[in-house]
Amino acid sequence: MANVISKEILVDSENGYCDGHFPERPIVPAAVELMWMTDLAQEHGLCCESGYTVKNMKLIRELVPGTTVTVKLLQGKRGWSGTIADSDGLFAQCNLIF
């Protein structure tokens, strides 16, 4: 059976995720989306701060304040697949190797 871990995150305009990116139309930077995935991995003891490999990161939709997303990691044969999504579909996906 596959190992899956996940958590919900509210993209609140007060949390600073979108500061300066972009003032007239704020969106969450890809680096923050990746940070959410690696933070989830660290919370579950899957990786350490010293390193991981990201492969094939795809940004599918812009993620804006006011959205609640599910960050999910699914264990596969060659690492972990990470996704960020809401009920309307994916915002981002990538493969992570810890």
From TrEMBL:
Q: State the SUPFAM superfamilies in the record.
A: Thioesterase/thiol ester dehydrase-isomerase
Q: Which domain of life is it from?
A: Bacteria
- Show where the ApeI dehydratase-like domain sits: 7-74
Q: Which Pfam families match?
A: ApeI-like
Q: What is the protein's given name?
A: ApeI dehydratase-like domain-containing protein
